[in-house]
Structure formats: C-alpha cells, structure tokens
Write a structure and sequence with these properties.
Strand content: 25-35%
Largest sheet: 6 strands, mixed
C-alpha cells in the first residue's frame, strides 16, 4: 500500500502573493496540490509559472481556462490529462474541470480539480456535469479517484448532496484539524472539500491547523486549504462501502 497526501486550495488569484501560498503548501508537503482561482487575468501565465517555481512542484495541468491547476511532486508519473469547460452561463464566470491519470509508486490514481459557481442553479448543473465527466474519464483510465473542489456551498446544499451521492466526503468521514474553510480570517463555512471514490481509504482530512499557522493561511488566501491523507493499494481495496461515481 502507498500513503498519499492531497491538498485542495483556493488561492484567491494569488492576492496574498505566490510566496505566501508556497509557504502554506510547503508546510503541508502534499504529493499533489489542486488549485482553484489560480491567476487567470493580467499576466496570468507568468504569474502561474512563478507560482509553480515557488511551490517547487511540476504542473500536470496549468494555464488552462477556468483558473484551475494540478501540480505534483517529482517521481509521480502522469499518463493522461483531461480538461473540460463546463456549461457556460451568461454573466457568470467560466467554470471547468481538470483531471489527471497518475501513477503513484506503480499504483493508478485519478485526480480531479473543480471550482463551482456561487449561483445555485449553475452550481448544481456544474456538479452533475463534473460527476459525469469524471465517470467517463475513470471508465477510460481505471483506478481510484479523488476530486478536490471549491464547491461554493456547504454540506446539505443540493450540489454537495449530488457529489456525495457517489463519492465520500473525506473530511466528514475522518475529520482532522479544522473544519470551516471560509472566510480564512474567521472561518464559518465549510465550502471546500476532498471527495473520494469507494476504493480509497482515508486516514484523515481537514484544514491543516496542526501543520500551518492559521495566520499564515489567512494571509495567503481568503480560503483555507483542505489536506487529505489517503491510502492506495491493498488497504484501499479492502475499504468497505465502495460505491461507483454517480451511483
């Protein structure tokens, strides 16, 4: 079996600066980091390259529409990537889904990153579209999968319920550290999550307050990150309650 650490982080367009974000990421020591609200406006390509260098990780998917990025530590293999712009709504920001089929110490893992819209109707549609896209990607690239998302809503919302109809909410299942992720300076709502398929064993998941100074996290972004420690391989295969995505 293989221990694996996933970080989901809305970095607020790097308004706190790439170095501040890099300090948070470094303290978490993830194998893969999924970013939402990576720079996508003025000089966004050069700003993303600077962020990649600051973090010291390799971009699997970056500089695509929708403000998402997936980066991984050296030693992980990327076998395939997928990026889809989700249904466009007039007057609302473009939303997308990024996916990468990885090999981690010889074991397959699919990683997906998404950021849904605050508008309830658009959010629900995008959540369903993301689940369908992920299911299609998983059918072509078999293996356990992890979705890191700024869901723009809290547990109990229709979009969150749609996600957890076929995926497991890692932080709800094995809570660790902090729970609420927004706003970072005085968190009151849990709007960010890591969602896993049934064949992933979760050790712990939550806001890494034991690893990162909350003041540093509040200075880096308006969201707090979610860190999940999971297990791949035999231990994951033995996990009970396996459910197909969308099931």
């Amino acid at each position: 079996m293989t221990e694996f650490r996933m970080l989901s982080y809305n970095v607020h367009g790097l308004r706190g600066g790439p170095d501040a974000v890099a300090r948070v990421v470094d303290a978490c020591a993830p194998d893969v980091v999924c970013l939402q609200e990576a720079p996508y406006l003025l000089r966004w390509q050069s700003r993303r390259r600077r962020l990649d260098r600051s973090i010291g990780m390799v971009p699997a998917i970056s500089r695509r529409t929708g403000g998402l990025a997936v980066l991984y530590r050296p030693g992980i293999e990327v076998h395939r990537i997928g990026h889809h712009v989700l249904c466009r709504y007039p007057g609302l920001r473009v939303r997308s889904l990024s996916m990468a089929a990885l090999q981690v110490e010889g074991l397959p893992l699919l990683v997906a990153c998404a950021h849904f819209d605050p508008h309830p109707g658009a959010r629900l549609h995008h959540a369903g579209e993301a689940v369908d896209r992920l299911a299609a990607f998983a059918a072509e690239n078999p293996g356990p999968f992890v979705l890191a998302a700024d869901a723009a809503c809290s547990p109990g919302d229709a979009a969150w319920r749609l996600l957890t109809a076929g995926l497991r909410d890692a932080a709800a299942e094995h809570p660790w550290g902090g729970s609420a992720t927004f706003p970072a300076h005085a968190p009151r709502r849990r709007v960010d999550g890591v969602f896993v398929s049934g064949d992933v064993l979760v050790r712990r998941a939550g806001v890494p307050v034991d690893l990162v100074d909350p003041a540093d996290m509040a200075a880096a972004s308006d969201h707090l990150p979610v860190l999940a420690d999971i297990v791949l391989g035999e231990a994951g295969e033995a996990e009970e309650g396996r459910r197909p995505v969308g099931g």
